[in-house]
Amino acid sequence: MYGIGSISKMFTAVVVMQLVQEDRVNLDTPVVAYIPEFTMEDPRYKNITVRMLLNHSSGLMGSTLVNSLLFNDNDSATYDNLLDSLKTSRLKAAPGEFSVYCNDGFSLAEILVERVSGLSFTEYLQENVSGPLNLYNTKTPSDHFQRERLVKTYLPGSDTTLPAEAVNMIGAGGIYSSARNLCRFATIFMDNSQSDVLNSTSRKAMENKEYLNGLWPEDKDSLISYGLGWDSVATYPFGEYGIKALSKGGDTLFYHGNLTVLPEENMAVAVLSSGGSSTYNQVMAQEILLSALKAKGSIPDILPYKTFTEPAPAPMPESELQYTGIYGNSIGLYQITIDANGTLTLGNVLDSSSGTQQFIHTGSGRFYSSDGSTYVSFEEVDGTVYLYVCGYTLLPGLGQTITAEYQVQKLAGITISPEVKSLWEKRNGKKYFLLNEKYSSEIYTAGTPYSIILLPDEPEGYVLNAAITDSNTAQTNIRIPGLWGRDLNDYDFYKDGNTEYLRTGGYIFVSEDGITSLPSASFGADIGENGYARWYKIGKETENKKIKVALPENASFIVYDENNACVADSYITGQDTVTLPQNGYILFAGDAKTDYSVEYLD
Q1: Which of 212, 236, 282, 532 could form a disulfide with 258 if both were Cys (CB 3.0 to 4.6 A apart)?
Q2: Beta carbons of 5 and 250 less than 8 angstroms apart
Q3: 238/290 Cα distance (integer angstroms)
Q4: Res 98 pLDDT > 80
């Protein structure tokens, strides 16, 4: 058994469609009809329909995951409080305007299933999907089963076995399953299906090209072309053979997977892994299926991989120069420069060490990479300029895949007052340390322990990819369909006494100015009433010293070295001693009012 991550969304979509079959839910009825207590600051939330939850077009900001990615802990508090969290959230787009990947939409769908059915999601899943299909290896964190049946996971570069992973937003990404169970589940989508779990009308509805209902680049077989639940209903490379292919990927911090179904061929492959990437798993699945199609005579041969030639430069119209500027997406900022000779240079504004990419103008507004495998072009939609990227990538030992999507949008500079600019410049380059994750959180172990605030030189008036609105807030206005506009977060700074805090995406961070050095002599302390973790710098007086920490049961301490790598986590190892690294940090996490003590052993 593996964590299947977002492949869980297919189970969620199926149970919603079961309720549609029973006339208990209508796809085009607003969600508030089924969840009356669902409210948001933006009144447009009333226009979000059930369909929009399943095709990623709700307009919700993205993912509410605080304290939901845990080790050996099925605490569902984040899911239980999701509706309260959304009350103070805004929409990033009008409902139905475009489809962009959204976990919260499927968490809302999970709530909808519970409200309509009167059962917990786990119970409904067992009674209506897992039970009828005999999916004995398909469970959720709420189920009682032996966690030893889960495939082991590891931190990169380490042979230390991690505790069982629990993603407690079940409908969005929390189901466990096996490859065999997923293929059995896939039979309900096949043309020869004998299962009554899903009727043919519902199955076909899930295959619709939902992504074309709103803003989208050209309709082309790719890795992303949303149906209801599906990542892709027009999946490369099967369209080149005239074969319909449906695909769904899933990634947690430690598990990765893909399920690809050929409904007309009555075939499916599931590839699951501990470590790796769902993209690699998908390419492996496509190669298995192509070999099987050839073996059974459905295709005469497997088409060779696309090959390319070096691009031939062509004169560039002066109008293309207007696209020089700063572009953004959900993860970064990028400088695009176009010179009069037709060379386009793309670089990362926030990370100059990553180098640049160059593309050559070849005519018709296209700029090709030096090997000819990828081209980029500019498209303007409703006043927004997008960089469209279309290209092929060969994954060594696996196969070839395609990219065909808007990846970044052009950002306009914003004028802010000198006073506001000065306040933000004081934050520039500062570290802000995460406070409100639970002691069992995967984030502390696998993620970077802090966020760095960066103000790019251009465009003026931005912090990272968010436009500054006043002295303490910034709002991201990224509007990209597909994947690159997902999981957007605004920034809100506030002070408690003289200490500054940052609130973003539900997470709370404290400024490095509010962190003290670890005392050089044995000491005791506690977690405050707010339950926030306590951070300490490891200074010259304490580095290389060995400490012993006394903690109660519901608590942990985590140590980071100067490269931000986790070198000790008491929740994982069960060890209470550690030698402190140079220039690192240590945090103590636990329930509110938890007492801990630190003793130096040398």
Answers
A1: 282
A2: yes
A3: 8
A4: yes
Where are the extended beta strands (E) located within 374-463? Answer: 374-381, 384-395, 399-410, 431-434, 450-452, 462-463
Average pLDDT over residues 89-107: 97
Q: Give the span between the Cα atoms of 163 and 72, in whole angstroms.
A: 6
**Residue for token digits 């790598």?**
565
Please give the DSSP secondary-structure letter assigned to residue 332: -
CA 225, chain centre distance (Å)? 17
Residues in a beta bridge with 318: none
pLDDT digits (tens, 9 = 90+) for 375-400: 999 999 999 999 999 999 999 999 99
Contacts of 23 (CB under 8 A, 6+ apart): none
Q: Residue 551's Cα: distance from chain center in Å?
A: 33
Residues 6+ apart with CB under 8 A from 530: 592
Q: Are 433 and 501 in contact (CB under 8 A)?
A: no
CA Rg, the chain, in Å? 25
Classify strands 374-381 and 366-369 as parallel, antiparallel or unpaired: antiparallel
Nearest to 101 by CA among 166, 40, 54, 47: 54
Both tokens of residue 398? 């696996």
Confidence (pLDDT) at 469: 96
The predicted model gives 496-504 an average pLDDT of 95
Residue 90 has pLDDT above 90, yes or no: yes
DSSP secondary structure, 496-527, as one string: ETTEEEEEETTEEEEEGGG-EEPPSS-EEEE-
pLDDT digits (tens, 9 = 90+) for 170-215: 999 999 999 999 999 999 999 999 889 999 999 999 999 999 999 9
Contact 146, 1 (CB under 8 A): no
Amino acid 219: pLDDT = 80
Q: How large a percentage of the chain has pLDDT more than 70?
A: 100
pLDDT value, residue 28: 98
Three-class SS state of 156: coil
Tokens of 149: 């049946």
Distance of CA 84 to the CA centre of its chain: 22
Peptide bond into 459 cis (omega under 30): yes
Assigned token pair, 339: 């010179």
Q: Given its phi and psi angles, is residue 136 left (phi above 0), alpha (psi -120 to 50 degrees) or beta? A: alpha
Residue 447 has pLDDT above 90, yes or no: no
Sort 51 into a burial class: Cβ within 10 Å, 0-12 / 13-18 / 19+: buried
**What's the rounded Cα separation, in Å, for the pair 236 and 224?**
9
Q: Which amino acid belongs to residue 477?
A: N
pLDDT at residue 602, as a whole number: 76
First-last CA distance in the chain = 44
> Locate tokens 């103000």: which residue?
455
How many helices (DSSP H) and strands (DSSP E) are in the chain? 13, 32
Which amino acid is it at 95? P
Q: Which among 175, 75, 189 is positioned nearest to 130, based on CA atoms?
A: 175
Cβ within 8 Å of residue 114, ≥6 positions away:
120, 121, 124
Per-residue confidence (pLDDT) for residue 350, from 0 to 100: 85
CA–CA gap between residue 94 and residue 83 (Å, rounded): 19
Distance in angstroms (rounded) separating the CA atoms of residues 482 and 217: 10
C-beta separation of 505 from 443 below 8 A: no
427 pLDDT above the threshold of 90 = yes
pTM: 0.96
Within 8 A by CB and 6+ apart from 9, the residues are 106, 171, 172, 173, 229, 248, 250
